[in-house]
Amino acid sequence: xxxxxxxxxxxxxxxxxxxxxxxxxxxxxxxxxxxxxxxxxxxxxxxxxxxxxxxxxxxxxxxxxxxxxxxxxxxxxxxxxxxxxxxxxxxxxxxxxxxxxxxxxxxxxxxxxxxxxxxxxxxxxxxxxxxxxxxxxxxxxxxxxxxxxxxxxxxxxxxxxxxxxxxxxxxxxxxxxxxxxxxxxxxxxxxxxxxxxxxxxxxxxxxxxxxxxxxxxxxxxxxxxxxxxxxxxxxxxxxxxxxxxxxxxxxxxxxxxxxxxxxxxxxxxxxxxxxxxxxxxxxxxxxxxxxxxxxxxxxxxxxxxxxxxxxxxxxxxxxxxxxxxxxxxxxxxxxxxxxxxxxxxxxxxxxxxxxxxxxxxxxxxxxxxxxxxxxxxxxxxxxxxxxxxxxxxxxxxxxxxxxxxxxxxxxxxxxxxxxxxxxxxxxxxxxxxxxx
Length: 436
Fold this sequence. Notes:
By secondary structure, this protein is of the alpha/beta class. The chain has 3 domains: 11-102, GTPase HflX, N-terminal domain (Rossmann fold), CATH 3.40.50; 198-364, P-loop containing nucleotide triphosphate hydrolases (Rossmann fold), CATH 3.40.50.300; 367-435, Alpha-Beta Plaits (2-Layer Sandwich). It is built from 13 helices and 14 strands. A hairpin with a 5-residue loop joins strand 13 (390-395) and strand 14 (401-408). The longest helix is centred in the middle third of the chain and has 36 residues, at 160-195. Residues 1-7, 139-144 and 148-154 have low confidence and may be disordered.
């Protein structure tokens, strides 16, 4: 399949191979979206079917010749594969096709490099790129194959590739140390929010599901939002007033994608920490997408990889404006708790429902009441202060500490257990409190 050559953008021949259902399967439509998001021009799409990748060139000899002809006919500058190539496969393909070859991982890394705006984001992308490039250092010039030693040429010295790897390791070490400082600063901010009992809600979801559009609509922010993959890369935090709860912190995060490169997940650990420690995840889903079930599954895979799958989650079915007859509504489970909201962030249809259900879910997870402690309960009082759970404290005429406490249920149970105090002492009259 050939496309008209556009007026601008580096031209590329796209290669997509269909495999039987399994880990190697990719989506050609998503591939074209990735190419468009990278600012490249798709000149031709070469497709094929194989039972398994060729160990040398990933594609067979016949398909390799078809790609070569397309490169020559389109005068393409590079070839993009919708698959992860091994370093040797990429090198062999570049020799055979006599042009640059980039795989799916390299393409996603390039998009991330274009999108990074903050200092932290740029460091994270560079770290992922260094880790990716470390396995692809090959040099064709023999005069630098091995540097000579000193006087009398004692020893053969290090090869050029070895020198490059050493430089990459040094740079990687420096970036990791800088990211560690950034993570420390984020940890301090999170501890401050926890001490002030400010809940955090994190937006997660497949890329281009409408997270940033929803974020802007809820907070009146101006986060960049566009109909392209990975429009948002750097996390953004804004305060959002919620009825019956007060202010929360809403976090907009990078979108996920199937087969998200593990190097990116590792590099973005500091950013994704916001998701791991969120009190509630809003899983934003493009309900008009035919592949929404598969996209939801891929998001859960990444959440599991960053240890966030156990966080309380609300599904947000966005883009109902693309589904004729669909209206905004709240779906509830058998206990009456909300588990899904249907809305359109673009049209601001159903936004009030989000505010409502966030308040319902977060307040249902809170232990919020006034308790009395005797001087003998000093350990419990100290633990509650340490968690920032005490909003106000007075002493009555009997010398009892009267504390206004606000803390998550699970955290309260852990504190009571550490203090050696049975939870029954503070269970409210509603016996279903701890079962919600």
